[in-house]
Design a protein that fits this description.
By secondary structure, the chain is mostly helical. It has one domain. Helix content is about 65%, strand content about 0%. The chain is built from 6 helices and no strands. The longest helix is centred in the N-terminal third of the chain and has 41 residues. The relative contact order is 0.15.
Length: about 130
């Protein structure tokens, strides 16, 4: 009996498991960085930071920060429209923190990089921060 194919298969499985572990660790680091950046961004805007980890509610808080009506959440549930709404909210988020359109596009397309920059950077919240519009 030839043992070589069996040994090769076990080596491939170990390599795949090792690669998967590295990918998982990198993804967790990116996720934790994004959550921490969003948490700090919410705190800068005078909102509770823990809202960053609650699905749907973090959208409510985000819409409040950018002074948009809460019913816009419905638009986030419509396929294709949600992509455009995410860009609009990201652009408005950049605006209320005194950043430009390029930074807003960064928030929309690379949020795991730009939210930590916004949250931990020197940007100040300049928005109205009144009661959410209904």
């Amino acid at each position: 009996m030839n043992w070589y194919p069996l040994i090769l298969a076990q080596g491939d499985d170990a390599a795949a498991a090792g690669s998967a572990a590295v990918v998982f660790i990198v993804q967790m680091i990116i996720l934790i960085g994004f959550i921490a950046g969003l948490w700090m961004t919410f705190q800068k805007a005078g909102k509770p930071g823990w809202a960053a980890i609650i699905p749907i509610y973090n959208l409510v808080v985000m819409l409040d920060i950018v002074n948009k009506p809460i019913w816009w959440i419905i638009l986030f549930l419509i396929p294709c429209v949600n992509f455009i709404m995410a860009i609009i909210v990201a652009m408005e988020m950049a605006k209320v923190f005194g950043k430009g359109a390029g930074f807003g596009l960064g928030l929309a397309f690379l949020p795991f990089i730009f939210y930590p920059i916004l949250g931990f950077g020197d940007a100040k919240y300049q928005g109205g921060g009144g009661a959410p519009q209904y």
